[in-house]
Amino acid sequence: MNDSVAPGPTTPSPSNWNLPNALTLLRIVMVPFFIWAFVADGGHYGSLRWAAVVLFVVAIYTDKLDGDIARARGLVTSVGKIADPIADKLLIGSALIMLSAVGELWWWVTIVMLVREVGITLLRFVVIRYGVMAASKGGKLKTVLQTLAIFVYLLPVTPAVPWMSVVALVIMLVALAVTVVTGVDYVIKAVQLRNAGRRNRTV
């Protein structure tokens, strides 16, 4: 008599061709248009600067929207986990570079943030053979703070209103601190993920 139990049906993995990933791709496509609007404004803080603000806000909203849809519909994929933070880094990184290029943000702040972002992205690819390193709560807080600071900096009225400039700087410095702390945390998690993967291979 065969007492073995037949395995139950397995849940198929969601396709990478889904709405959340399409929204992530849209966010990447919007980056060049955002850059163009900012550069074309030429420091006049006019309608094109406002267009850059709108593009930035819409792009950031797609970040929240794709995450909500992915979790609600069970459409979380490994591609999405990798592409989503890359899209965020392209948008935020380009904004930081442009703000520094026109003298509205210290270059050292932009450099520290970019080094952290690029380094963690490369680290994700290094350890992907052992597993996907998803965004942590601290990483999400970092993104929110960076986004808020950039938004205030981008507003055409900020340079003309001293207290808004101070608010933008304070938020940016807090975002910088969280950026560094979470970067160290990701490095620790990457090492743990790699060590766990190596142990599993030797078992």
SSE order and pairing:
Blueprint: H1 19-41, H2 47-73, H3 78-101, H4 107-126, H5 137-154, H6 162-202
Whole-number mean pLDDT? 84
What gap, in angstroms, lies between the N and C termini? 32 Å
Principal-axes shape call: globular
Q: How do the helices and strands follow one another from N- to C-terminus?
A: HHHHHH
Q: Using DSSP, what is the number of strands?
A: 0
β-strand percent reads under 5%
Q: Tell me the major beta sheet.
A: none
Number of helices: 6
Low-confidence spans: 1-6
How many whole angstroms does the radius of gyration measure?
A: 20 Å
* Alpha-beta classification: mainly alpha
Helical fraction equals: over 70%
Describe this structure in words.
The protein is an all-alpha fold. The chain is 75% helix and 0% strand. It contains six helices and no strands. It has helices at residues 19-41, 47-73, 78-101, 107-126, 137-154, 162-202.
